[in-house]
Amino acid sequence: SQTIHQWPATLVQPVGSPLSLECTVEGTSNPNLYWYRQAAGRGLQLLFYSVGIGQISSEVPQNLSASRPQDRQFILSSKKLLLSDSGFYLCAWNRAGGDTEAFFGQGTRLTVV
Amino acid sequence: GENVEQHPSTLSVQEGDSAVIKCTYSDSASNYFPWYKQELGKGPQLIIDIRSNVGEKKDQRIAVTLNKTAKHFSLHITETQPEDSAVYFCAAGSYDKVIFGPGTSLSVIP
Fold it and tell me: Nearest CA to CA, how far is B36 from chain A (Å)?
């Protein structure tokens, strides 16, 4: 069966510090991978998606970046965090082709102080 | 790109009543329309989905309808129960990405 792991679960970082959130998927190959952000009481904002290794598409211009160094690994990064980067970050995957159920990780609660 | 709108943003119903959430999308290439339920502090989970070649689908107390011409789709929950209280998201998907609506916070009052 397929599983998705996302860590850490919670993170408190000072303004200006770097960020690295990691997501891995097991039990499938060549998945579509996604990073979403959910601000408090708000909807899911698509940040990045990837249909293959090294292929990253950005939906929203920002100081975040994403990388996919391996087929089932998706990393969200920032060189310098802003207060506005606080939120709930969710990694998700679905099968290549896109029009299938997306499975979400448990999320990372990021607080920038 | 795709834009998904969702209404209402909050909804309160009495236990046993029905709840209806409506969504619209903009990209005619979208062909997959899932609905997700998110409980506090967790990731969303799929509750039902519909594809563009189907107009209606039902699973027990939950039904979805799709009007592809008007680019509308709706979620209907009948005989609501307190455990239905959560945030519900509609989404529109195509071959490479899934775009979510802003969500509806549903409260079922016992």
Answer: 9
